[in-house]
Specification:
six-stranded mixed β-sheet; two-stranded antiparallel ribbon; mainly beta
Length: 172
Amino acid sequence: MQISLHKLNQAKAGQLDLRETVTLDALPGEVPGLVRLEPVQVKARVSLLDPHLIEADTEQSTEATFSCSKCLSEFTLPIHVKWKEYFTDEAHRAVETEEQEIHLIDGNVLDLDPMIREAVLLQFPYIPVCREDCKGLCPKCGTNKNVETCNCQIEKIDPRLAALQDWFEDKS
C-alpha cells in the first residue's frame, strides 16, 4: 500500500481514507506450517498531524490456512489486527524509544507494506495446532486420533529405566 505524500498534502483536512487489498504471496513459502494466505483487506486512515508528521491508523483482516503440527490436518485461522504508526520526512524527528517510534520516510511515498506484513506475521501461532485438545497422529500406524481410534499398544518406558524391563524375564 503506497501513499503519495503529495496527494496527502492536497487532501481535504490533511486526511486520506483508503481501502486496498494487499497480497503477501511469498509468506506461505517462508512460514513453517502456513499452507495458504488469503489477500489482506486493509482499511487505513492516513492523517497529516503537522507538515512533517504523519499518522497511519490501520485495520486489516485476512484468513490463513495452516497445517496442524500434531495431526497434519489443515485449519483456517481468521486474522484481524489494528495498528497505528507514525512517520516523518525529517531525519531529526525520526525516533525509536520504548514509548514511541517515528519512522523515517524515504522519498515522496509512504510505503505501508512492511508494516502490513509484520502485523500479519505477528498474529501467526508459533506452533500451529488445529484445536487445543488435538490428539495428533498415532506414532505406530499414523491414524489421526482426532478422527478415529486405533488399537495400537504404545508403552511409555523411560529410556533410563529400559534396561530394568528385562530384569524379571524368565531366563530358563
